[in-house]
Design brief:
It is built from 3 helices and 3 strands. The protein has one domain: Recoverin, domain 1 (Orthogonal Bundle). By secondary structure, the protein is an alpha+beta fold. It is 48% helix and 16% strand. Strands 1-3-2 form a 3-stranded antiparallel sheet.
Length: 69
């Protein structure tokens, strides 16, 4: 199975988050951890970013306080 690696500009574009927000959420363990690509380069596995997005979309769509869909 081939896994795609996304660099920071692509992660920012697909999540709508800024660089500082991405790294803040990583430090709070609420965003996928990047993998080292060597030197100072990092990237994120595309499927992990997609899973994170899906979970956030689902949780934002859940009814709260007895609301019904």
């Amino acid at each position: 199975m081939i896994q795609s690696i996304l660099r920071l500009p692509a992660v920012k574009a697909c999540t709508g988050l800024s660089r500082s927000t991405i790294y803040l959420r990583i430090s709070k363990s609420s965003f996928p951890t990047p993998i080292s690509l060597g030197g100072r380069a990092v990237g994120w596995l595309e499927n992990e970013i997609e899973d994170w997005l899906t979970k956030n979309i689902e949780s934002s769509r859940k009814p709260t306080n007895g609301e019904q869909i």
